[in-house]
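Q: How would the structure tokens look for this protein?
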Amino acid sequence: MRTAQRTRAAVVAVVLALVCGHPQAVAAGTTPQRLIDADFADPDLLRTEEGYFAFSTSSTTGKVPWASAPAPGGPWQVRGDALAHPPAWGAEGSGFWAPDVTRRDDGRFLLYFSTSTKNGGPMCIGVALGPAPSGPFTPVGEQPLICVAEDSGDIDPQTFVDNGKRYLLYKSNGAPVGDPAAIWVQELTPDGLAPTGPRRELLRADLHQEKGVVEAPVVVRRPSKYLLFYAADTFQSSGYHTAHAAAPALAGPFVKAPTRLLSTDGLGGQVDGPGGADVLEDRIYFHGWLTPEHRTRGLFSLPLRYRDDLPELGTGRAE
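A: Here is the predicted structure in token form.
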């Protein structure tokens, strides 16, 4: 009788693992490298002929702090503030979250950011233009680029160029009562300064472990599929983690992976609350809490490889 019970229990465990996934084990080559041991949250990475650049959410360094390094592994140095001044529509003294910097075809650079609007309004997404990755970036327009009333705020912009067209991915905050947070894609005009056509929802916070939050979208195109990396759970929590979903096209449908790519437990506690990730070349960059009090988030990095066009952490031969 006990043998039969053990057999049934083992079968149930296997089925649950296949359906629901299982906690990620700490694999070889997954010791995160701490690149910036200071407040540098929601990192965005960029490579140019001059080297590597990174941008972060507002800190004591500035509105949009930027750092540079000669190589992915560093040494990284925080240099200053990339944003020349706040936008005309921005609330005085508001912070700037999760910036994204990309190069235009004309050689100039675009900076996308989110900040609060005046008179107690929600956070919305704006765009600025600059001559170099370090700026200075000057905000464009008297109104936000993206600001949808029913979203209760739009944040975490990330650009992606696909088949010659420029797109902006971002998060809608959702509401305490009503729809949860979602990730959207919006085509932009070729200059990157205005939306064109309707937006499309890519995924929504519909899993229990997401706690109503999906954010920080990043898309990577692989030969057979599109990968959407995103963060879930609340950023203040150690449960904050990075997951991914896959789709045959940028428009979707995106199917969420059953396991988390980056999590506090999955990394053996080496990084607390790994999220806000960006992917550049063969590495994933993300922030994590530097102190038990969860006051500042530093910049970390890990190698990233692909097997059957799906992401795996650690070093090894990419497939």
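The domain at 39-308 is CATH 2.115.10.20 (Tachylectin-2; Chain A).

Residues 1-26 have pLDDT under 50 and may be disordered.

Upvote if useful.
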